[in-house]
Amino acid sequence: MAEKEMASNFIQNAIEEDLKNGKYTDGIHTRFPPEPNGYLHIGHAKSICLNFGLAERNHGLCNLRFDDTNPTKEDTEYVDSIQEDIKWLGFSWGNRKFYASDYFDKLYDYAVQLIKKGLAYVDDLSAEEIKAYRGTLTEPGKESPYRNRSIEENLDLFARMKAGEFADGEKVLRAKIDMASPNMVMRDTVIYRIAHATHHRTGDKWCIYPMYDFAHPLSDAIEGITHSVCTLEFEEHRPFYDWLLDSLDFNPNTRPRQIEFARLNLTNTVTSKRKLRQLVEEGYVRGWDDPRMPTISGLRRRGYTPASIRNFCEEIGVAKANSLVDVAMLEHSVREDLNENADRVMAVLDPVKVVITNYPEDKQEWLLADNNPMHGGQRFVPFSREIWIDRADFMENPPKKYFRLKPGGEVRLKHAYIIKCEEVVKDADGNVTELHCTCDPTSKTGDATANRKIKGTIHWVACKTALPAEVRLYDYLLETDADGNVPDDFQHALNPDSMKVIENAWIEPSVKLAAAGTHYQFLRTGYFVVDPDTTPDHLVFNRVVGLRDSWAKSQKK
Ligand code: ATP
Ligand code: MG
Q1: Are the C-beta atoms of 67 and 212 separated by less than 8 Å?
Q2: Which of 152, 186, 193, 389 is deepest in the core (most CB within 10 A)?
Q3: Catalytic site residues?
Q4: What pTM did the predictor assign?
Q5: Is 294 in the pocket of ligand 1 (CB under 6 A)?
Q6: Pairing, β 264-266 against β 120-123
Q7: What distance lies between CA 456 and its chain's CA centroid?
Q8: What is the mean pLDDT of residues 19-47?
């Protein structure tokens, strides 16, 4: 425990140290900086919880900033979905929603300043040539023949790049640092490129766009971010960010402090927007919010709650080393939440009819049933002569110690009577079509006479009043190796049985008016949520998770 607390706190420790040393007098200021080129996924949820969480915990502020420097890949659909997802998770950026594109003018001026200081130059090499000149980890790079252009020439060419005189790829602006640096990012990183593309916010105003490595640290500095929390792959970019801010005379004592943490990797799951987009665009799933997707919108539709995702992010903590988290831990988290907060109802997914032959045909009783043992609350459930039970709750030739229904055997119907199986009715192929039972009228749950104990209890739904329902069962979208890693060619690892649709399930009438997003525990079956496809005449449920908690079990060993 102590180890985990320390691990989850190394960023918090750094912040406390800075506050104690009086480094940031106006309090701390973080940001969540998504690129609006796809929907957010569970990895982003970790970053959101971390950045907004650190601000909350330290009475600081957290900005939402769209890093929108790549016009061809970005879209307002993504901008909208990102905001919806952050709000749904329960965080607020107040009036601090920003866009890197808000700063395009400023960023251009900063680039001009670099040129004037002799720290940036316009290069005519092609992308392939730049790559070839860059060298490798073991060999230094080679200087571009255009590297020593005069400041005047560079200013003129950069202005003409902005004015649209050149085609895409014809020229770039590069930082002038050190082609022999052991750090590849320091080998004259490209900071501006030409792209004749319409931007979702600035339209056709610009045909040159800043590169992420240029825009990101400057946006942080412009917004007065104190702690720039990011994932590990940016560690080697930090020297460039420092170089850039030094070169532009930002105060080294108050500029953003970058702290890196390990990104979240989950077993059975891809967390890359590029791959997720491929799944959507190539039609492997029904959309970004398909309940099998690890997107926040997919998890929401699947029935995950904001609390379950926040608790999960809290539980996994923050670390400095990459690791793989078991997806069963995420499932455990939603199970815990729904166990406490979802009402129990009865539903039969694989129905077989039971006729209670000694129960009058025209009789109907309303039996009292508990909604949730932790919160109390009760409802009435109708009972009548014909009911549905789950096929798996009857066995004609059961093994010993089978305590559900069997020929000549007894079982308790939850909230109702003890019944005894008297006759098994089959069709010509030998399939069981009906079970004829008798009930013990003195055994009704709650009655003073119901003093007979019986081992098995099963759920049921009365036929006359049952509502038909479509129930969608999910399994992992992708097959993995034994450790839970998804292969790189994930398109070939799709699980053909990741979705199973049950068209003819039956459910008790109390759920008739349940709105999309309402959670239930189907007794003995699992946790379910009402899908947005539902209508009062056609109920649709998604299974969130089953009842069996493999994670909690593995922790007890
Ligand atoms: P992807 O690889 O899915 O495209 P990204 O890092 O390019 O992710 P951004 O929109 O740039 O996507 O991410 C916004 C923020 O979320 C960044 O600060 C990034 O570091 C963080 N982030 C992205 N993926 C993860 C992850 N798996 N775990 C933790 N943080 C993440
Ligand atoms: Mg990114």
Answers
A1: yes
A2: 389
A3: 35, 263, 273
A4: 0.94
A5: no
A6: unpaired
A7: 39
A8: 95
